[in-house]
Structures are given as C-alpha cells and as structure tokens.
Write a structure and sequence with these properties.
By secondary structure, this protein is of the alpha/beta class. The protein has 12 helices and 9 strands. The relative contact order is 0.08. Bound molecules: zinc ion.
Length: 383
C-alpha cells in the first residue's frame, strides 16, 4: 500500500501539533481514496465570538496546483511562530476570527490529479447551473470523469469535500455580520492576479464596490507588486506566443490569427457529435442555427445544434442607444453599418471572418426602427 503521506499534509499535521495550545482543529470530512483515507482539516485562530469579523483562507482545491495550499500553510506557520512573542498579534486576534482550510482536496494532491479521487473537479462541482453560455468543456462538463473539468453526475449530491467547504463557509463565515473568503489558487495563465469569480451569472456581484476598494488598498499597500490585469497572454498575439513556446500547451485564439500564423489547430466535437474543424463553413453553420429573435440578438454561439457547427463560434456585437439625443449622428453611424452589410462581406471573408447570414441582416435592419430620436421618430429611414 502506497504511503498516504505527502509534504503539504505532513506540514499541516505538524502545524496542528506545534499549535495545539492556540489553534482550534477539527476534521470536517474523511476522504476515502481506495484503501487510503485522508482527513480534511479546518484550523481556527482568534476570537470565536460571532460578533467579530472572520477571514477564511482556502487552498488545495486542485491537486495539481500546490501553490495555493503552500501559501496558506506558510501563512499559518508564520502566525504560529509570531504567537510566541508578538503581543500585538495576540491583541489583533481578539478582534478577528481566522479560519483555515489549506487542503480541501487531499486525495487529489496525494495522487497528483486536478480532480478528487472520484474524478470530480471540485471547482466545478455545484448543483447551480450557469445562466449564461459557458466555455465548452472548461466551463465544466457532465460527460465523463475521464475527461478534465468533470462536474459530477447530474442530480448527484456534491462531493464530500465540496459539502465540507460549504459547511465551513456557512458556519464559520456567513454566520457573521462581516466575513471574507480567500481562495488561494494557482490561477490561470502565467501571472498571479486577483479574481472575483462568480460562475453562474454575468450579473455584477453584490459588494463589488467593497471588493474593488479592497483591491485598491492592496495596490496602494503593495506597490512593489505589479498586479497584471487582463489575460495571461495579452490578446491573440500573447496567447499564441505562450502556446507556441510552452510544450504541450493548448490555447484559444481567434481563427484569423491561428490561420495567418499557421498554428496547429484541433478538430472539436460539436453538439451533434461530429468532429469538425474551424473554417468559414462551420462558423456559418453555427450562426445559421441561432434564434436571434429569442434573445434580442444576444445569442451565444457556443455548442450550437447542426451537424456542421463549429462548437466555439462567437459573434461580434455593436450596441446602439435606443433613444438618440443626437439623431443625425446616429443616422451617420447606421449609414456606415448599412454600407458594411452591403459591401463588407467580401472584406470579412478576406480577413477570415464570416459575414452575417442574410436572414439575420434583415432582422437587424428591422430592429433599427427601434432606434429613435427624442420625438419618437426612427433615425433610420433608408433601406
Ligand atoms: Zn485550479
């Protein structure tokens, strides 16, 4: 039987022994992994009074990404060492509760897999469904535990580790008037960043302004750290540079960019079960399958029905104000789009984009009747 020891768990257990006098410790679940069993620990420090605010530190959701666990463990160890001599820290801990869950997925970390022992990606293991279209596969899938990003079977209870996280958040954090949860994660791409993830809707989250204020404090306090914003690789160019430089890397760039730079690209399986390549025919097939009236043109073209549809097609959108206080300007703008629809198709083709289907262009012209001046007169009278 392979040893169940690994360095992060060993360090956590050593912290628990060394800190016995000041730490609260409990095992919130036991994870079975074949013949092995791993405890998932919660460690608490500071004032248990529910009236004081709490900060939760979580790490180790993905067993392949060890840095989050290590950051939480190093912080916890440093607090423990300071407790021996630092009276200011003792004073601070009277007015705050600290909650640590440094190793959410011990079996995954033991195996060196992203998922837990059941093959479930704990970051995607929730009964909540997204209200938006999510990226194919990486947005979570219910096809098979053999593929990455598996969410678990539809309707199945959440994994034991996920349930434990929810219990800890509910009992230790949400029970307080003020609390903050920090997930220390390896992140995405090649740079560290602060994320405000909120997976199931694109609507702005509550407390956005407070979170932004917190980020502002961070930026002003840690001036030596340059927090990068945007994608790990900047734009198509950055992403493709990384992909070409890193062996085994897979990236997602615009078709025109992949084609013009002669990058290797993959076939993908579409909703109809066919493997198709990216080209203008498969993009057109995806656009043709969309019902543009249903969503007031806000169609997400990923994973569209149709045997030839490229499953990760995206449309470009232009937003116009319905009420125009400078109608002459709006008319000029629409004249330009009118010109583009009538003359731009060939240029779009040459640039490896796909012109909109005729049926859709007709719908767009009809929608222009809704763009009006302040007297209620449509700004577009042409045809
Ligand atoms: Zn991760």
């Amino acid at each position: 039987m392979r040893s169940s020891a690994f360095s992060e768990l060993t360090e956590l257990q050593s912290i628990i022994i060394d800190g016995a006098a000041s730490l609260g410790v409990r095992v919130v679940c036991e994870v079975k992994a074949g013949e092995q069993s791993f405890p998932v620990y919660v460690v608490t420090l500071g004032n248990p009074d529910p009236a004081v605010p709490a900060v939760g530190f979580f790490g180790g959701f993905h067993g392949l990404e060890r840095i989050g666990s290590e950051v939480v463990l190093v912080y916890l160890r440093s607090l423990l060492v300071r407790l021996r001599w630092d009276n200011v820290l003792h004073k601070e801990l009277e007015s705050v509760r600290l909650v640590f869950m440094p190793l959410v997925n011990p079996a995954g970390m033991w195996q060196g897999t992203r998922a837990n022992f059941n093959g479930v990606d704990l970051m995607r293991n929730a009964p909540v469904e997204s209200r938006e279209g999510v990226p194919f596969m990486i947005g979570g899938q219910r096809l098979s535990a053999r593929l990455p990003w598996y969410r678990g079977a539809l309707g199945a209870p959440m994994e034991a580790e996920s349930q434990a996280v929810c219990r800890v958040v509910e009992e230790e954090l949400l029970a307080r008037r003020f609390s903050l949860a920090v997930d220390c994660h390896s992140g995405f791409g090649l740079h560290d960043r602060i994320w405000f993830p909120y997976a199931h809707t694109a609507l702005p989250i509550e407390h956005l302004s407070e979170i932004h204020a917190l980020k502002d404090v961070f930026d002003k306090t840690y001036t030596a750290v340059q927090w990068p914003v945007g994608l790990g690789g900047k734009g198509n160019e950055g992403v493709s540079a990384f992909v070409q430089r890193i062996p085994g890397a897979i990236g997602y760039v615009e078709y025109a960019y992949a084609k013009q730079n002669k990058m290797a690209h993959a076939l993908m399986q579409n909703a109809a079960g066919n493997f198709v390549g990216p080209d203008d025919l498969t993009f057109k097939a995806a656009a043709a399958g969309a019902d543009w009236t249903k969503s007031n043109f806000g169609e997400i073209l990923t994973n569209m029905a149709g045997k030839d549809s490229w499953p990760i097609t995206g449309a470009t959108f232009i937003l116009m104000q319905k009420l125009q206080d400078k109608p002459a300007q709006a008319t000029e703008v629409l004249k330009f789009f009118d010109w583009a629809y009538k003359n731009g198709g060939k240029m779009a083709d040459e640039l490896d984009y796909v012109p909109l289907p005729d049926s859709l262009v007709k719908l767009i012209y009809t929608s222009w009747n809704n763009i009006k001046d302040t007297a209620g007169k449509p700004v577009w009278a042409g045809k």
